[in-house]
Structure formats: C-alpha cells, structure tokens
Amino acid sequence: MKVIEAKDYQDMSKLAADYIIRKVSHSPKIKLGLATGGTPLGIYANLIADHQKNGTSYQGVTTFNLDEYIGLSGTDPNSYRYYMNHNLFDHIDVQKQNTFVPRGNADDIEKECIDYEKLIKNHGGIDLQILGIGSNGHIGFNEPGTSFDTETHVVQLTASTRQANARYFNSLEEVPTKAITMGIASIMRSKEILLLISGEKKTEALNRLLSGNVDENFPASVLKRHPYVTIIADKAAIADLKVNS
Ligand code: GLP
Predict the structure, then answer these.
(1) How many A from CA of 206 to the centre of ligand 1?
(2) Segment 13-56, tens digit of pLDDT
(3) CA distances from 6 to 49, 128, 131, 235 (A)
(4) I need a labelling partner for 136 at 20 to 30 A (CA). Which of 52, 99, 148, 155 fits?
(5) Annotated catalytic residue: which of 127, 138, 142, 165?
(6) How far is CA 88 from CA 186, 193, 216, in A?
(7) Residue 217 and residue 230: Cα distance in Å, rounded?
(8) What is the pTM of this model?
C-alpha cells in the first residue's frame, strides 16, 4: 500500500480528484467504483469544477456505488442514489443509465444483491474503486466480522455506524438498520483501489490499517492483500500515527 500525505482535507480532495481525472482522461471508458459519506464530497466538488473548467468528459464512464440503505428510494434525500445525483452525476456529463447504485427499495432484496454483483461482472469489473473507511474499519458497509469471501449482500448496521451517520438524518431512529453493500470479495476484485482518510477521528483506523494484522474484525485490513492500493491521508489523520509505513 502506497501512502500519500496530504496537507489537509482540501489538499486530499484535490490530489484524489486529479488522480481520477488522469485515469478518466487516459481511459474514457473506465469503470469507476464510487463511495459516499463525508470524505469523498470534496473529490466530487473538484471533479465538477474540473468538468466545467476543462471539459473532462464522463460520457463513456460507468460507475458502481458501494452501497445503499435498505428501505430508502432513490428520491429520498438520505439515499445514496440521491447523494450521488446531487453531489456528482447531475453536474457532469456521465450518462445516468451508466451509473449504478444498489436499489435499496427493490421488491426482492436478495435478488438485487445477486443482480448487482452480476452487473459488475458483466461490465468487466471495476477498474478503480474509491473507498472511505469507517472508524471501526468498515469499508462499504462491511462491518467488523464480515467474511472476506462476501459478495454483494445485506448487512445489519452496527450501532456505531448508525450513530456516525445519524448526522445526515433528523434523528437516530430514522437511520435505516440495514443496507446492501458490495462485499469484501467484490471490493477486492477491483483492479485498483484509492482509499481516502481524513481527520483525527480516523487516526486510529489508519494506524490499525498500517500496523495491524489482516483480520476480519477490521475489514479494511484485507486491503493489505490487494496488489494496487493507494491511500491518500491528510495530516490530521496521520498526526498521531504510532507507526510510519
Ligand atoms: C459510511 C459509508 C462508507 C464510508 C464511511 C465513512 O457508512 N457506507 O462507504 O466510507 O461511512 O464515512 P465518512 O466519510 O462520512 O466518515
């Protein structure tokens, strides 16, 4: 895993966006894996600004999002489909029909999981997966204890993840209790992974990722087995690192 140190959140977002822009310019039909949460918002803002200023085109790009809350429709402002449309897709020239987010309100959720996994495979897999990390090491919504063999599946969200995401909802009670997420095996099949880590709340997770063992109780640790991972972390996340790698 290569670690790039960014000055701050803005710098991390710019470095990551420039990285993605280079990849898209070089491979206009790239399959991107996208993430939600607070961390990638700055990246998406930079991608939009670049699209408007320099005309980087996403017309040939296909995107697959990591996860979605179960029970929310794509028009619900707290759904990840809404988040993606609002924070990125509506402002660039990607073709909406080539943007995929699991459907959290599908009639048959188990079938939705199987279909989503097939969809990714039928497109030849993900070339570059953007990832954030939960403070407990979750990637996508793969909580501690998730088997490394999992493909897209239904998860029960932990109390800590619901608590962490409650800031986007009116109350904790409104945060869904379940989600669909790409599995660890699905994520690991991406040809390349770009992991973003920002803020002191994530220092412990970064520390454990760099210095701990590969362990299903810390899902992100699996990334050590991936041949092509780049971490961009800001100073605030790196500050108290016990081990440098
Ligand atoms: C959410 C998402 C993850 C994300 C993580 C961190 O639960 N499902 O994909 O990486 O939390 O979120 P944030 O970037 O807001 O800290």
Answers:
(1) 14
(2) 999 999 999 999 999 999 999 999 999 999 999 999 999 999 99
(3) 20, 20, 16, 6
(4) 99
(5) 138
(6) 23, 20, 32
(7) 22
(8) 0.95
